[in-house]
Amino acid sequence: MSQPTATDSIAALERKGYVEKRATENDKRSLKVALTIAGLSALRAGGAVEGATDRATEVLPEYEQEELLLVLVKMIRQLQERDVIPIQRMCASCRYFAPFVHSDAARPHHCNFVDAAFGQRDIRIDCRDHETADPAFRAATWDAFVEG
C-alpha cells in the first residue's frame, strides 16, 4: 500500500470514529494509529457477519456450496468487466491460475504459484498470493474456466 493510500484510508477510518491518531514518544514526526471503542465494535461485528455467512453456507449441500461460489465468481467478474469494482484477488484473474488442465474431475485446476491441483470448491475470491494477469491472459483463462 502506498503512503498516500494509507493516509487516505486512515483519514476515512478516523472520520468514522474507528481509529484515532496519537503522537509517538520517540519521534514527533510519526503517529501511532489506535482502534477506538467504536472501531473495536465494528471489527467484532464484521467477524460476527463473517461467521454468520460461514454458518449459513455450511448447511447447504456441498454441490450447492460449489455452485454458489461459482456464481459469486461470475458476478464479481461481471462487475470487474464493467469497471464497477477493481480486479479482485481471485483465481480467475490470476497469472498463476490454469483452469481445467487436469483430468481429475475433483481437482481439475492448477495453481502454478504452489504447483498444485485443486477443485472447484477451492477456488479463491481473495488470495494473498494473487498476481493479476495481463488482460489477454485473463480473458483466455476466463474463457477456459467458463467453458470447463
Question: Could you provide a short overview of the structure?
Answer:
The protein is built from four helices and five strands. With 148 residues, the protein is an alpha+beta fold. The chain starts with a helix and ends with a helix.
Provide a count of the helices.
Answer: 4
Structural class: alpha+beta
Query: What portion of residues is helical?
Result: 40-55%
As a whole number of angstroms, the C-alpha radius of gyration is 20 Å
Using the alpha-carbon principal axes, give the shape: elongated
The count of strands amounts to 5
How many strands, which pairing sense, and closed or not: the largest β-sheet?
Answer: 3 strands, antiparallel
What distance separates the N and C termini?
Answer: 35 Å
| Beta-strand residue percentage | 5-15%
> Strand order, biggest sheet?
3-4-5
Low-confidence stretches: none
Oligomer: single chain
H/E element sequence: HEEHHEEEH
Mean pLDDT: 88
Domains, number: 2
Structure, explained:
This protein is an alpha+beta fold. It has helices spanning 3-15, 37-58, 62-81, 135-147; strands spanning 19-23, 31-35, 97-98, 109-111, 116-118. It has four helices and five strands, in the order αββααβββα. A three-stranded antiparallel sheet has the order 3-4-5, with no helix packed on it. Strands 1-2 form a two-stranded antiparallel ribbon.
Notable characteristics:
5 strands, elongated, alpha+beta, 46% helix, two-stranded antiparallel ribbon, 3-stranded antiparallel beta sheet, 148 residues, 4 helices, Arc Repressor Mutant, subunit A, 2 domains, 12% strand
